[in-house]
């Protein structure tokens, strides 16, 4: 079976380039990374059972839950990057006149603040054609465990799994968006 030129041009190649708050004034490229990035969508579909059904039936299924995430392994151990992996901790300092510090206190327990969430996490994946797939997760937050290992003859790695979150105040907002763009603008 032959391929079409369009199919060939749409093959994704190379690693993913990941930004936090892409398109915003505080946009930042994450890196260096190891192993590229991984975008996942997890959906729970319920089959509506009825007497006489032969199995899964078109029109008799309901989407109950939809979640999206972006995984990336980061080698940058700056305090600001560590704060992405610990959104419940308190980040202090401005990074220039006062160095950043990250602390965790009993006052950090409880409901996460809106400021804990990124406006977006965006990954760009290049295609053979030379354009990019832009994958954007909205209201992104790392919810997983934090590990940082210092080991001989190796680098510390931070596993980030940024999860998209629905907006409780506006249920018409996107959870994620995938689009094709010609180039990445810094």
Distance between the termini: 40 Å
Overall mean pLDDT stands at 95
Q: Give me the CATH fold name.
A: Pnp Oxidase, Chain A
Low-confidence stretches: none
List the helices and strands in order: HEEEEHEEEEEE
> Which percent range describes the beta-strand content?
35-45%
| Overall tally of domains | 1
Structural class: mainly beta
CATH level-1 class: Mainly Beta
The name of the CATH architecture is Roll
Tell how many strands the DSSP assignment holds: 10
Q: Characterize the overall form.
A: globular
Q: Please outline the major beta sheet.
A: 8 strands, antiparallel
Characterization of this structure:
This is Phage tail protein. It comes from Clostridium omnivorum. The protein is mainly beta and 186 residues long. It has a single domain, classed as Pnp Oxidase, Chain A, CATH 2.30.110. Helices cover 6% and strands 42% of the residues. The chain is built from two helices and ten strands. The strands form two sheets. Strands 1, 2, 3, 4, 7, 8, 9 and 10 form an eight-stranded antiparallel beta sheet that branches. Strands 5-6 form a two-stranded antiparallel sheet. A hairpin with a 4-residue loop joins strand 7 and strand 8. The radius of gyration is 20 Å and the shape is globular.
